[in-house]
Structure formats: C-alpha cells, structure tokens
Amino acid sequence: MPFDSNFLKENNAKFQWHPMAHPAEMQANPPKIICEAEGVTLTDVDGHKTLDSVGGLWNVNLGYSCEPVKKAIADQLATLPYYSAFRGTATAPAIELSHALKEWFAPDGLGRAFFTSGGSDSVESALRLARQYHKIRGDRDRTKFISLKKGYHGTHFGGASINGNANFRRNYEPLLPGCFQIASPYPYRNPFNETDPAKLAELVAASLEDEIGFQGADTIAAFIMEPVLGAGGVIPPHETLMPKVREICDRHGILLIADEVITAFGRTGAWSGSRLWGVQPDMMCTAKAITNGYYPFGAVMIHDKVAEVFESDRSSFGAIGHGYTYSAHPVGAAAALACLPEMVRLKVNENAAARGQELLDGLKALYQKHEVVGDVRGKGLMCALELVDDRASKKPIDKSRIGRVFETMYEAGVMVRISGPNMIFSPPLVITAEDVQTILQATDAGLAAA
Q: CATH: 1.10.287.3510, 1.10.3720.10, 3.40.640.10, 3.30.420.150. Which one for 69-346?
C-alpha cells in the first residue's frame, strides 16, 4: 500500500495517543513507524529492515507471511464479514472453532469456549465467570481474587486490579475491591531473599496458604496466574509451583485461572503453559497467537467440571449476562481455524523449545561478557535480560542507557522490547537458528553501547 513518508513523519504521535506510553514523551521522541513486514522481518518508513524479536506483541507466532490465515480472513470477509453471537444467532466459523478448540485443549480438560475480542477481554470474562460459578453453587461470599506480584493480566478494571505491577495500577486507583497479591516466584528479586527457585516456590505456595487463611477460603473466588510470567519481566516459576497452587486451590474450593494469553499455542515449548507444568486449570484465558495477531480475537476455555455447573443450573444465576459486540466474530474465528493446523504443520512448539534454548544459552554467554546484565531468564521463546547499573546492588539501569541499547540494536537490524530495566525477547515461533544468532549479535552490540 503506498504511503506518504513525509506525512507520516510529520504527524507521528501528534494526534494518536499510544498505549503504554506518555503522550508528551512520544511527541518528543516519536516512535518507529513500521510500514511493511515479511517472514520475521519488519521494514520501517525509511526502508530500514529489522528482525522482529518482539513477535508483534508476543502474538505473531507464525510470522508475517502466513498466507493460509490471510486467505481465510479474506474469504470470510467476502462471505460473511460480521454477525452477532448474542442469544439467538451463531455463525459457522465460530461453531467450527469451538469444536476445534475442544479437541486442541482436551489434554487440559477444557471443553467449552467463550469467545472474546482479545486478552484483556478474556481475563475480564474469566473473573466474571468465576464469581458467577460460585453464585450458582450457593457460595455467594466467594468474590475475592488472589494473584502474583509482577503478574500482568491486561488493562480492564478487573485485570488492572489483579495486576501485580504498580505501573498499571497507580494512576487508575481506586481499583476493584477484593483483589490481593502475593510474592512472585522471582529468584532475582523477592522479599525472602531466596535465590533457589525450588525453595522460593515453597515460600510462594506458603504465602498463598497464608493469604487464603487470612482472607477466609470461603470468600475467595479464584487464584489467577500466568504459567510463565510475561510482561512482568519473563519469570518462569519452578516446575513445582503451579502443581502446588493447583493442590491448594482444590483443597480450598478455589478456582484456578491460567492466564495464557501469551503462553497458549506453543510459546513455552508446550502447547499450553499449564500443560508444560502438568496442571489442568479451571479456566484458561487465551488470545494473541490464536489468530497470529492478524485479527483481534480471544477465548476463555472452560474446564468440563466448571461447564457442568453452569449447564445443569436451572436458575437465573446460570444465565451469562456478559459478552462483547465482537464476541465470536466470524472473521476472527476463520483466522483461528486457519492458524491451528499451521501451528501443527510447522511444529512451532518444538521449534520454540529448540530455538528458545539456543537463545537462552546465548544470552547467558552475554551475561558473562557484559557487567550491565544483572539477570538472564527464559523458557521457550520467552527470554529476558534484566539490566543494572551495578550488579552488587542490583540497581536498575538508567533509562538513558537502556535507550542506547535499543537504538543500537535497531540500527544493527533487530527490534527488541524494552520494559523498565528488562529487554524482552518473544520472536515468532518460526525463527531459525540463524535468526537466533542475528538476535544475539545485535544484543551483544547493544549491550556494548550501554
């Protein structure tokens, strides 16, 4: 599509407020203008090409040239561009997708889908359904939610209220009452000063038990967690944590919601993050990769035992008074239907595991080389470097220094995501071993410029 580069540069950030950014800062330092993409490569307004080690925003798992998904979108637009999924009507792609997802998530025990417009919608829907589940059962005091500090669960008021990062909370308070956070399984920084991941998992689980006891188990609707924490800085918990959480929730009648907006569909090396840790959640929030980022779409997957409570109810408490205009959008459903077989055909879960290990090993080598790297973390194609001004004190890197890292890497041909002191890597799951080396070489250059 032709575009006027002078117009784009002149008007960049003047009339558009960008998500997760200060409007004044964006006007002072306009963002990169991305105009084209192919494979795993982005092209900006000046024709400069970069390997996308951000993967859009954790979501373009199949890269930018996935023709089956593009064709499915175009074909559906020509056939039925939209119709409502509210009571009384349905569309063919959504029906087909619900069946496909039931089979996809069968190992997770998830047999029902509630379709949404994206990740924040999926989290909001899961929170509401969790409260409703307990009301149907007569446990109407169960309204509270517990989550992890450093966890990220979107930006609706429900999601912001359970988020564990002050950046997404402070400017919007007061938030939803009844939301409480416990310590994160973050060996590099935690209140216990515990660096052993297994021992830290025990301490986090004990914190959950303690918070449940303090709040009263009969007041808690659900515990929500990411199987691998993403936007909070890529924090993989010890393999024992999620099973411990599952057991605690079961013992106290609390629902376990897995926020897999990032981790579903292969990014961790398993088809779901819950499956990676051998856990079946009561609900799973998905979005992002379900359409490869080509169309806004999401789904809350619901465990069969939870679905049975709703479907066997004959009172007004079982009626779902929640939904979105674009729930079960036929174009999004068609895109998702095209994505699923491509993920299997390309074995993106296996590639994520292999390439992710190569990337993590390379980042660990850069830790040995550059004092500015305080910590290295990763699981599958979710990796992060936490940068510091001083390793001994763990003082986070100055903003101007990490800005130089970003610009140097961009000039070297790699787009990376900067979040606070963290450099986050979440490339498409179709990257090659050669792509991994390109990322590592650019990262080496960026760290040298810090």
A: 3.40.640.10
Q: Alpha carbon of 402 to those of 388, 399, 450: distances in Å?
A: 9, 5, 6
Whether cis (ω within 30° of 0) applies to the bond prior to 81 is no
Task: Check: pTM over 0.70? Answer yes or no.
Answer: yes
Q: What is the largest CA-CA distance in the chain?
A: 65
Domain boundaries, the chain: 32-65+347-448, 69-346
- Percentage of the chain modeled with pLDDT above 70: 100
Name the architecture of domain 32-65+347-448: Alpha-Beta Complex (3.90)
Q: What is the DSSP string of 197-244?
A: HHHHHHHHHHHHHHHHHHH-GGGEEEEEE-SSB-TTT-BPPPTTHHHH
The pLDDT, as a whole number, for residue 3 is 82
| 388-418 per-residue burial string, b: 16 or more CB within 10 A, e: under 16 | bbeeeeeebbeeeebeebbebbbebbbbbbb
Q: Which residues contact 132 (CB under 8 A, 6 or more apart)?
A: 310, 317, 318, 320
193 three-class SS: coil
Q: What is the CA radius of gyration of the chain?
A: 22
